[in-house]
Amino acid sequence: MxxxxxxxxxxxxxxxxxxxxxLKCCNxxxxxxxxxxxxxxxxxxxxxxxxxxxxxxxxxxxxxxxxAIKMSPNKKLYHEHAxxxxxxxxxxxxxxxxxANSIIEAKPPKSExxxxxxxxxx
Length: 122
What we know:
The chain is mainly α and 122 residues long. The protein contains six helices and no strands. Helix 1 packs antiparallel against helix 2.
């Protein structure tokens, strides 16, 4: 009963965009039962729908949904969610590459003259 209540709370928190609270509910639910695939699914959802999630958060979300799939391999919903998680991870990696490239391109190259010329004190 408490497990169901925590899962419902987690869903409500996600609907309100309170993803950290949703994760807390899921973690508390895992303290009750580590054998409930729905908990891993909800935990993964909270990370995926949180636009502030890091790449590490998304990688953890993938591990969570894979745990749910291992427990319920025939649940189509879990497989569809796993695809979404992988897509978000790919998008995050691509975004990080573009950001890194723009930083590299924005740095002006140092000329040999500027490198070899000593700075004079006035």
